Write the structure tokens for this entry.
Amino acid sequence: MRQHLAVALLATALAGQAFGQQPEPFEPEGYRADNYRAPVPATLAGARVLTTAEAEAIWRARRGTFIDVMPRPPKPKNLPEGTVWRDAPRSNIPGSIWLPDTGYGALPPAMDDYLQRGLARASRGDKAALLVIYCLADCWMSWNAAKRALAYGYSNVAWYPDGTDGWERAMLPTEEAQPEPRPDQ
């Protein structure tokens, strides 16, 4: 009986792939360390996963702190002297705290400290405060950062996987963002 069930499940999965459906990504044990712009899992153990409507309700009620972890494009090395460099603008959910580059799979100690200090400020030192962590749609950066917040002991973590892409699709307001000062700047 078990063998027939296993065969049926495998056939169903293969049939879905044959019709162009991609299998749902599973949660990895650790952090995603490459290919950050790829389909993300539907879940994050220990965190609440938000739809755009749920994120909007929290935002409108001001019940949580929104944390954007979108990476900041680095300044190109070896720019000719006198070249003007302007960071690409970032629009995020109004009132968010932008902690760029904190969603990578491995964080150097200074960036890990930067994330921990940023989360402490965002939560006002209350590890039970609601933190809504996001980036863009299909971006593992927010999944990694939310997982890391859970590992730091935060108990009320919400992950908004559609990020600013979903927010803008719903025609909700955004504002130009400035990142929190980083330790290496």
Remarks:
- The chain has a mean pLDDT of 87.
- Helices lie at 2-18, 52-61, 109-123, 140-151, 163-169.
- The chain has one domain: 40-74+87-185.
